[in-house]
Write a structure and sequence with these properties.
This protein is α/β, with parallel strands linked by helices and about 230 residues long. The protein is about 40% helix and about 15% strand. It has helices at about 15-25, 40-45, 45-55, 70-80, 95-105, 125-130, 140-150, 165-170, 200-205, 215, 220-225, and strands spanning about 10, 35, 60-65, 85-90, 115-120, 155-160, 175-180, 210.
Length: about 230
């Protein structure tokens, strides 16, 4: 089966903006969206988003905002001027927080409204981790609850493990984006991810986008690793 590389987001997990831009330039003929997380954003600021956009690519700005509603709304407004394609907040911040984030994204005057996503349950967590936080649910059930709230708040989609894709679709329907970071090729180590699938399995399950970082960016030959992503 042939898979669409337009559904692949490459995570730039480095604090070095020069290294990040080198990866963008190396892969941009096959990849159109790159993820900027806390590490790179804190080191380089909003300018890194603009630089990636200048390369003709899009940015998933993965800052996972989680605060009181007004603070998150202000943060969303501040980020939009940089020009992200996607932006995320934590669904566990609650319905009001997500609603305020959506209103801020829609009301911002500078830049184009980004796709607004809600983080459900981090892929580094399993049922034992949830129990330690006194959350008496399996990850799948907690993801379903948070996805429902995100949909109710009017967000565009969620970030979740590929293992919960089917459950999310059953809960909120098809007209809702699912971005899955918990993917690892068969030839790569799982690292700190716990609830994972291969890239091919995630897309087969119905993910709209998959996020891949170290298996490609830390490879001796990132282009070669990218070409083997679905093997």
């Amino acid at each position: 089966m042939t898979y669409d590389y337009n559904k692949v987001i490459i995570a730039l997990d480095t604090p070095d903006d020069r290294k990040a831009l080198d990866i963008v330039r190396l892969l941009k003929d096959k990849i159109s969206v790159f993820k900027v997380g806390l590490e790179l954003f804190c080191a380089s600021g909003p300018e890194i988003v603009k630089k990636i956009n200048d390369e003709g690519c899009k940015v998933f700005l993965d800052l996972k905002f989680h605060d009181i509603p007004n603070t998150v709304a202000g943060a969303v407004k501040s980020c939009i001027s940089a020009g992200p394609f996607m932006l995320d907040v934590h669904a566990s911040g609650g319905l009001e927080m997500m609603t305020k984030a959506k209103e801020a994204a829609e009301g911002a005057q500078s830049g184009k409204k980004p796709i607004l996503l809600a983080i459900t349950v981090l892929t580094s967590l399993d049922e034992k981790d949830l129990a330690a936080m006194n959350i008496d649910k399996m990850p799948k059930e907690q993801v379903k609850t948070l996805a429902y709230l995100a949909k109710k708040a009017g967000l565009d989609g969620v970030v979740a493990s590929p293992k919960e894709i089917s459950a999310i679709r059953e809960t909120v329907g098809k007209d809702f984006l699912i971005v899955t970071p918990g993917v690892r090729p068969t030839w790569a180590a799982a690292g700190d991810q716990k609830r994972i699938m291969t890239p091919a399995q995630a897309l087969d399950k119905g993910a709209d986008y998959i996020v891949v970082g170290r298996p490609v960016t830390a490879a001796a030959d990132p282009l070669d690793a990218l070409s083997k992503l679905f093997q």
